[in-house]
Amino acid sequence: MISLKINGKPIQVESGTTILQAAKQLGFEIPTLCYHPQLEPYAACRVCTVEVKNEKGNKLMTSCNSIVEDGMEVQTDSDAVAQARKINLQLLMAQAPAAEIVSEMAANYGVGDTAFLSENAEEKCILCGLCVRACEQVAGTSAIGFANRGKDRVVTTPFDVQNEACITCGSCAFVCPTGAITMDDPFGREVIHDEMTLGPDKAITVPFMQAVPNAPAIDTEACIHFKTDACGLCAEVCEPEAIDYSQKDEIEEVEVGTILLATGFKTFDASRIAKYGYGKLPNVITSLEFEKLSNASGPTGGDILMQDGSVPKSVGIIHCVGSRDDNYNKYCSKVCCMYSLKIAHLMAEKTGAEVYNFYIDMRTPGKGYEEFYERLLEEGMHLIRGRAADVSDWAMNEDEEGKLVIRAEDTLVGAVRRIPVDMVVLAVGLEPQPDAEEIRRKFNISCSSDGWFLERHPKLAPVSTFTDGVFLAGSCQGPKDIPETVAQSGAAVAEALALIDRGYVELEPNTAFIYEEECSGCKTCIPLCPFSAISFVEDKNVSEINEALCKGCGTCVAACPSGAAQQHLFTDEQIFEEIKGVLSYV
Amino acid sequence: MSKPKVGFYWCASCGGCEEAVVDLNEGVLDVVEAVDIVFWPVALDFKRSDVEAMEDGEMAVCFINGAIRNSEQKEMVEILRKKSGLIVAFGSCSHMGGIPGLANLHDKESIFNRVYHTVPTIDNPDGTIPQVETSVCGTTVELPEFWDTVRTLNQVIDVDYYLPGCAPPVNLIVGAVTAILEGKLPEKGAVLAPDKALCDECDRRESKPENLCIDEFKRPYQIIIDEEECLLAQGLLCLGSATRAGCDSICVKGNMPCTGCMGPTSRVNDFGAKALSAMASVANANDEKDVKRIIGGIADPVGSFNKYSLPASYLHRKVRK
Amino acid sequence: MSEQFEPKIVAFFCNWCTYTAADLAGISRMKYAPNVRVVRLMCSGRVDPQFILAAFRDGADGVLIGGCHPGDCHYQEGNYKALRRFHLLKPVLEEMNIEDERFRLEWISASEGDKVQKVINEMVEQITKLGPLDLEPISTPETLDEMLEKEQEIAV
Amino acid sequence: MEQLNTEPTKTTANAQKPFRMSVLVCAGTGCVSNNSFKVMEALQDEIKKHNLEKEIQIVGTGCNGFCAEGPLLVVQPDEIFYAQLKVKDIPLLVEEHFLKGRPVEKFMYTPPEGEVAIPKMSDIDFFAHQRLIALRNRGLIDPEKIDEYIGRDGYTAIAKALTEMSPAEIVQEIVDSGLRGRGGAGFPSGVKWQLCAKQDSDTKYIVCNADEGDPGAFMDRSIIESDPHSVIEGMLIGAFGMGASEGFIYIRNEYPLALERLHVAIEQAEKYGLLGENILGTNFSFKMNVVRGAGAFVCGEETALIASIEGKLGEPRPRPPYPVESGLWGKPTNINNVETWANVPIIIDRGAKWFASIGTETSKGTKVFSLVGKINNTGLLEVPMGITLRDIIYKIGGGIPNGKKFKAIQSGGPSGGCIPEDQLDLPVDYESLSEAGSMMGSGGMVVMDEDTCMVDVARYFLTFTRDESCGKCAPCREGTWQMHEILTKITEGNGTLNDLAVLEALAEVVKDTSLCGLGQTAPNPVITTLRYFRDEYLAHIEKKECQAHVCRELNTYIIHGDVCKTDGKGCGVCRRECPDKAITGEKGKAHVIDQQLCGKCGVCYDVCNFNAITIE
Q1: Is the pLDDT of residue A56 over 80?
Q2: Looking at beta carbons, which residues of chain B come within 8 Å of C97?
Q3: Which residue has the higher pLDDT, A336 or A171?
Q4: Chains with 3 or more CB pairs closer than 8 angstroms to A?
Q5: How far off is chain B from C106, nearest CA to CA, in Å?
Q6: D71, D206: one domain
């Protein structure tokens, strides 16, 4: 332990402690600009200067990096210190007049204005180097650094060009004390709801409100620690030490009797239809993005805002985006008409905007659905029957200036209309999950031509599959709305329970078997069985089929060169007779 | 009690079956001791008239080898059927058509054309081909009618038993004769040989792997054949797994693959199709291109799988166009 | 034969894919030629080449095997075995003068009702064009003389 | 040493048949830029022409020191000193002196005030008062031939160190010698060595700081150019003493000749087994690296230098930890300046006691200075510590040219301070100079005469430190810039007394709170000039007057009409040259300057041949 005095107060601290840390323990605040507890001290701003008395006499030292020594006497606010801080803060004020934090700090020392010459009134950067150190020490990337000497010193990227080393983590902007660094939208748009537009989400998040379990998790794709093996700030600041980087996704094997496939759907990627301008034009959003915007726990607290923060006065909703379209999906996604009407209703209610629906056919079967549609008609919703041709920001007259223009044929009027709106919502359809094919193979089931999982029979076995014990629930089988999904899931669960309740599985009746006395032990059948149901019995020199393993395909039977293998229900004789039979009538 | 009378007859065949009888060596003496050979044209001077002169069913058994491919053979076997208590189809040719049966890949016309016109060694300026009836010096001379299709014995007459093989193995012959003498015959229509495939008695069977899959089919001249290892595992088209046992695997012992002369086991109807199925199944390929490559390595599939059995197969002859 | 030749086609369909697809074609009211006679097997891997030949012998003018697409077999790889046998049987049939169109192997998944329709209609059309498969029946002692007479006629 | 004898070089072989004369041509940078190589070529041609090759040997040496008089040539054994030679002089010189044996008086050095040429080098004042230790071989050996260094007892010290001394004894010897760092701060080298030797680490490094960045200083450069092996040997001894196995020489790339000679020297030393594995057959191994610096002044600061060697941005970091604890790549590292290293071999050779007998109580040995500015004998000199500034300026330097009055001497480079005339009897040692507000620095000395404006001098040095500040810490980056702005304001006549107060306060804060030595010493010129020449500042501010007439903004140019008319006949040259068209007048008549239009460029003053224009 080291004994020293700070402002006359004695204190004992562990060796290796800095004066700044020691002073903090005693409650003496020392101003800092270039210091950050998670970064190595840099001692560049010199604001943390204190006066130290030791055997060599009095000396001004920076407290952020100076290690305490036995017998030190430190003054954190002596006249000399105050004078040094005043001058240094004035120098920084002159250099970066727009850095408010500096002026505020100077005001504490009675400095209102700098005595020094100022060159650039807009300057915010005080060259404290926090960003550069954060980039190197936290992000581990060194994508930014200092260039030039002296007064020409600037923080920049190598050769002043954007470079791939930058992982756009935003550490530099986060740590910047003066706001000199901002994260820019590459499209130059003002960012109001970052989830929707760009910029990385935080690497540690609770997936969504009310998530279960309601615990934050690290997104390893976004986390700097996993990208560059640096950072680790969260572990440093987490007092209960709950952060564990070594945790990994684990694959656990669970033995089950039945499996429900409820892999759901994926929404249609609206940017595939370039003419609607999604991803290019501002304020063209998808229905799901509208839901997030409208959500009370969403980024805008439920207010429907455009990217410039204003409320839309007119909104177009385009139906059947990616559905009922030979170029994308031929089928009707079933749920879009109704949710579009809901969006229209909410939009009108929340913003008072004029809402235009562009539909092909209005499909509202179901309990209460048609009535809702009627209600909307009464509310004065604009419903235009016709597929929207495109969305553009190309104005042909003053009314269209600064707006999104939807062009559509109004088939009821028989004319092409141009409707200028502030915001466009695309009612995107439902699509099978991109990995449906993979899942399908894994479970040995089929897919329909659209890619939805195929039921065993469309009428008689709508939740079963061709694989016993595997059932389908929800929209992995095809587009469904919520009640339908719930109903079908219930059915699937009931089927699964029935199987579980019975507690045993019926074997296939059509298993293969071997006439032992006729088997020559040629082993031809053994490698053919994908289920390893056939084994060779050495002492008898014959093959033997385990009927519990046999799934009854009959491949071995067809290959058995001496006909010793046969299949129940499908013996050679039976099939020969069947062939004769089917050919016997004219 | 007089000794049972026995006959031997030879139709479309190579004569090897007759040799097989002779191959009994001194055993033939025991046969002669036990039976009275009353008809054996290849060895003894009997005439058709001698047979015709017999009472119906006078012969206890008649062994007929060779396929049937002309009218004279048909007539003879019909007579023999009448005069014999039992007819035994002797050897692959009468059993399944045999090598001569491969003529079913052609027809009478093309065969005559080849044999009498286009074969390089022929000297036939007049282009003469055999005629059933020919006038020679005022008399009519007859030749048997040559059929378009080669037939197995049982396609022509009712056959009681079959002695398979090309030629039938001696021990099977002895076994058959003994059974007849002792009256311990199986059900009519039976093949007088074990009803298991050759792998069962093959010396190399233990070297056959359980995960047999073939990357390339080879012909014997293409490799130096290992004398211990399963021939199929070496890539040779050995049909032993589809072929009835009873030959003591003499070909395999001679380091040559089984070609299937003993015919199928009792549950198999079409020897060639079944053997083909077994061989194709173990080709190690799933991709169409690879399948074609490996399967393409099997030269002459019809000749390979139906070397002895074409007339007895489902398709039995080429479709006429 | 004044009346239109109607070919007989024997189809061996696997239970999971092609048979279901045929079912789907039915449910979907897809009309296909009635000439096909379906033999349902659990898997195309069960198709013994003997069955094909037996079908031809018993009077079929064409044989169709329908199985799951490669990789999709309900039994994992039965359809590959069918593929191997098919490619070995093909040259045999060719040598026996049975036309290529008379024997087909098609991968038809459970969702491809339309493919069932297309394949069958196509096959019927092609085989109708070829005419009946004139495979000589196999003689027995009883039918021999009759057949020899016929043979004589052909020879003349 | 065995190895050395087996490979006699040409020089040693020739040495067996002694030459009649050795002609030592200075090949230091100063003389080279004055065409000494051409002179040498001409000499060779001429000697060949006269068939004197076997009698006369020509040697290109390192810097002789008397750079103002280059190209220089010393003829041994008679020590005849020729100065300012030109190629056309050579035929006469060769014929007269070398052939006929009559030294040529007209090529010899004549002191500025004297009339008689001085033939012998040691009789020249410039050389007479020097004591050469670090520069012991200058002008005597060919720096590109290791044998010549060995011939002058080179590499005997390392042999002694390796075979007769323990590492601890070596370090102790340096401690006892009282040698202090010659790079500027004057930290006792022995103490630093002890600290480094004490560190427990498997890897240690030693570094030679040859990043000589002060304007007007060329001590390190001369040592490397004239005697590179003395540095290498010093480092070898240090490495053995401190337990280091690898060394770095950090040298600025602007020193191509020094760089080349260093490479040649290292190559030769490696060939002789004096560098590399198992040096002189012992277990001691040492690898030498040369790192080229890009010429940033701040890289002379040791932590910035380390960062630069490591390939990082050359900027200092806070100390502690000191490099002896955590230096290059975090390993203990000892950094010494070129001159310090060059002193080491001779200390080991002749003993600490001998070395400690030279100099003063606190400052032992000698110091090399580069003497420049308003001085007659510009050049490089080595003097014992304790000599007075007056002796340096008047005895060695030969006084101020043109009979001007001495005003101040600035020592220690741009970060040093200005010392006025009343302190000229100050003994030159570390403490005295510091007390006077200046510093020893690396040994630059700039002499200023009465024509020098001290405010302008301060501004000039601030220009340098402002430009060379790395920009890391705020007081240095911003403070030097602001000080420079204020000084500029004053020199332009816009200064106020408040500016002076701000300047003084700022200078103190920059000095007290800057991170590294650069910033801490950058205000020295301001502080010392304010201390000794405050009246000049006040004159600039209050009277808007620059006594030395250096600050042109403050000058008023006046044409004396009578002189112009009578002497100059109204020649009109000034009118034509004036860029501001501020001068009017007809030919033959007196001219007048319109003070409103005058841009104060001073061209008229410079072009007037009749002294009709004066500055008020």
Answers
A1: no
A2: 318-321
A3: A336
A4: B, C, D
A5: 13
A6: no
Query: Of the candidates A112, A227, A131, A240, which has an alpha carbon nearest to the alpha carbon of residue A181?
Result: A131
CB B283 to CB C84 under 8 A? yes
| Residue A454 sits at the chain C interface (C-beta within 8 Å) | yes
Domain count, chain C: 1
Nearest by CB to residue A583, choosing from C41, C42, C55, is C55
Domain end residue (candidates: A505, A525, A545): A505
Residue D127 domain-assigned (yes or no): no
* Segments forming the whole domain that contains residue A556: 512-583
Q: Does residue A122 form part of some domain?
A: no
Q: Which of A517, A559, A561 is facing B197, going by the closest CB pair?
A: A561
Co-location of D438 and D469 in the same domain: no
Q: What is the CATH number of the domain that holds C127?
A: 3.40.50
pLDDT digits over D554-594, tens only? 888 888 888 888 888 888 888 888 888 889 888 888 888 98
Render pLDDT for D173-210 as a digit per residue (tens, 0 to 9): 999 999 998 877 788 999 999 999 999 888 999 999 99
Q: Closest Cα of chain A to B253: distance in Å?
A: 17
What residue in A sits closest to D479 (Cα-Cα)? A91
Give the Cα separation of C70 and C84 in Å (integer).
12
Structure tokens at A435: 């990995």
Nearest CB to D472: which of A44, A115, A126? A44
Q: Does A119 touch chain D (CB under 8 A)?
A: no
Q: Do D472 and A150 touch (CB under 8 A)?
A: no
- CATH value at residue A276: 3.50.50.60
Residues of the domain holding C82: 9-155
Domain ranges of chain B: 5-99+150-182, 106-147, 198-312
Does residue A70 share a domain with residue A191?
Answer: no
Is the pair B, D in contact (3+ CB pairs within 8 Å)? no
Q: Is residue A217 part of a domain?
A: yes
Integer Cα distance of A241 and A231 in angstroms:
16
CB D75 within 8 A of CB D38: no
Handedness of CA D341, D346, D351, D354 (dihedral sign): negative
Q: Which sign, positive or negative, has the C-alpha torsion C139, C144, C146, C151?
A: positive
Residue D2 lies in a domain: no
The contacts of residue A338 (CB under 8 Å, 6+ apart) are A364, A366, A369, A372, A481
Q: Which residues of A touch C51 (CB under 8 A)?
A: 575-576, 579
Between chains, do D482 and A117 touch, taking CB under 8 Å as contact?
yes
D208 and D350, same domain (yes or no): yes
Contacts with A47 (C-beta within 8 Å, 6 or more apart), sequence order: A31, A32, A33, A34, A85, A88, A89, A92, A105, D474
Cβ <8 Å between A446 and C78? no
B86 near C CB under 8 A: no
Give D392-408 pLDDT, tens digit per residue.
998 888 889 888 899 99
What is the count of structural domains for chain A?
4
Crossing angle of the two packed helices D167-177 and D228-242, in degrees rounded to 10:
120
Domain B5-99+150-182 is found in CATH 3.40.50.700: yes
- The SS3 call for residue A423 is strand
Residue A130 contacts D where some CB pair is shorter than 8 Å: no
- Give the separation between CA C10 and CA D530, rounded to whole angstroms: 116
Kindly determine whether residue B267 and residue A521, on different chains, have CB atoms separated by under 8 Å.
no
- Is the domain of D510 the same as that of D599? no
Confidence tier at B62 by pLDDT (50, 70, 90):
very high
Q: Are residues D219 and D338 in the same domain?
A: yes
Contact residues on chain B for C85, CB-CB shorter than 8 A: 276-277, 280-281
ipTM computed for the complex: 0.56
Cα D563 to Cα C50, D330, D570, D574: the distances in Å are 137, 73, 9, 14
Assigned domain for C3 exists? no
Q: In this structure, are D376 and D396 located in the same domain?
A: yes
Domain range for D465 is 454-543
Q: Which amino acid is at A530?
A: P
